[in-house]
Automatic annotation (TrEMBL):
The protein's name in its UniProt record: Thioredoxin domain-containing protein
InterPro entries for this protein: Thioredoxin-like_sf
Length: 414
């Protein structure tokens, strides 16, 4: 049975723009500290759609610096409430423009407080000559992902990414053939990379991962600078897929990634095909080992993400509420860093130094993890003999989540 504390929508605050999605637009749910000081030049701030329409009618404006495709993407995805932008495609100006140009666009919409302090290097990624048939692919992908996400809520669903896989097979496969890529325009090629990147992000598909690596190679062969976010996107997927040899080779070939250390992965213990595996760090090296199981007994996994605001609230409650901490520890709850975090060794190390009785692990490369870690954190997974018995999501501020998880733990006999 699938239970829910509450299905909570969450949005990444735009601090890691290199991993933005096809929809791109992000809801602003909190403001980070001010990160940038610019000259006090007078710039119009758009407060609603009327202001936007008037600016567009008056002639040249900062949005003209964008390509037509990206300009339309910005206009399509912006929303206001009470004179403040609540939805904005943060990644577009960062990808397409030079630093000062991008800041002008942020300032135009009154979101300059979100401007990245460390602006990415590399030439801007210009989405030039994007054809209508390629542009329509983004909407087709979005519809497929939405259908699959809706189906995932059905506890009887067994093919979570059925529509997305069909989209990939019927609409993308032919476009990814080497003979087709050779004549694909730069803008269409960049859009293909973003679409395949999105499929990877959502499904961790091995096929899409192989295609993404091939697209990255084609971009470089065409002389397109991939330092403006594309190298980092590929690296993240390599870490998620646990393709550490490829990640090490990419880092070695990219001076701007030279500060990224990719540890060696060692095997430890005897594995069965059905075993879930965990990764632990020892003296700077990673070791993959079978997850300990107790036959016939229920185990509770707590999946968390380093970038999840609800997880940070749970962490704060665990630090403040000793009863909560003790109950999790008594239940031998196993904390798992989400696959989407890649290899967050510093995050896991810092947690374990502070919480030795409630250790956190990184998941190994297993098909089972892709099924269990399907997004939405924190996620409480009740397992028995390797099979999911119950799922609970979210962490509310009103204390009801604590009561719900306590009841579930007691029901499980832990």
């Amino acid at each position: 049975m699938r239970s829910q504390l509450k299905i909570l929508s969450f949005f990444l605050v735009p601090l890691l723009l290199v991993f933005s999605t096809i929809s791109g637009a992000q809801v602003i749910d909190r403001a980070p500290p001010a990160q940038l000081t610019e000259s006090n030049t007078t710039t119009q701030v758009l407060r609603n759609f009327t202001d936007l329409e008037q600016m567009l009618a008056q002639g040249p404006n900062p949005l003209d610096q964008l390509t037509p495709y990206s300009r339309e993407k910005i206009l399509r995805n912006v929303e206001w409430r009470d004179g403040q932008v609540i939805r904005f495609d943060f990644a577009v100006p960062i990808e397409e423009l030079e630093r000062d140009q991008a800041f002008q666009v942020y300032k135009l919409f009154g979101v300059e407080r979100f401007f990245p302090q460390n602006f990415p290097i590399g030439a801007p990624l210009r989405y030039e000559n994007v054809s209508p048939d390629y542009a329509s692919l983004t909407e087709s992908l979005r519809k497929s992902l939405d259908q699959d996400t809706a189906r995932e809520k059905d506890e009887n669903s067994t093919a979570v990414w059925r529509e997305t896989e069909s989209f990939y097979r019927t609409q993308l496969s032919a476009l990814l053939q080497p003979s087709t890529l050779a004549s694909t325009s730069k803008g269409n090629l960049l859009l293909l990379f973003k679409i395949v990147d999105e499929v990877n992000l959502m499904t961790a598909s091995s096929r899409a991962f192989s295609d993404l690596k091939r697209l990255h190679l084609v971009l470089n062969q065409r002389g397109i600078d991939t330092r403006r976010s594309l190298d980092e996107r590929l690296l993240k997927h390599m870490l998620v897929q646990r393709d550490l040899d490829a990640a090490r080779a990419l880092v070695a070939s990219r001076p701007h990634l030279s500060n990224v250390a990719i540890p060696k992965l060692n095997e430890e213990g005897h594995f069965k095909t059905s075993d879930l595996s965990l990764m632990v760090e020892k003296r700077g090296q990673l070791y993959r080992q079978p997850m300990p199981t107790v036959k016939g007994k229920i185990q509770v996994l707590l999946l968390v993400s380093e970038n999840c605001g609800f997880c940070r609230k749970l962490f704060a409650d665990l630090e403040r509420d000793r009863q909560l901490y003790a109950r999790f520890s008594e239940a031998h709850m196993i904390l798992i860093s989400s696959l989407e975090n890649g290899l967050p060794m510093n995050f896991v190390r810092a947690w374990n130094e502070k919480n030795p009785s409630l250790p956190m692990y990184m998941p190994g490369k297993d098909e089972q993890w892709k099924t269990i870690d399907a997004g939405g954190w924190p996620q409480f997974v009740f397992l028995k003999n390797g099979k999911v018995q119950e799922l609970l999501y979210g962490w509310r501020n009103d204390g009801s989540s604590k009561n719900a998880i306590f009841s579930a733990i007691e029901k499980a006999g832990l």
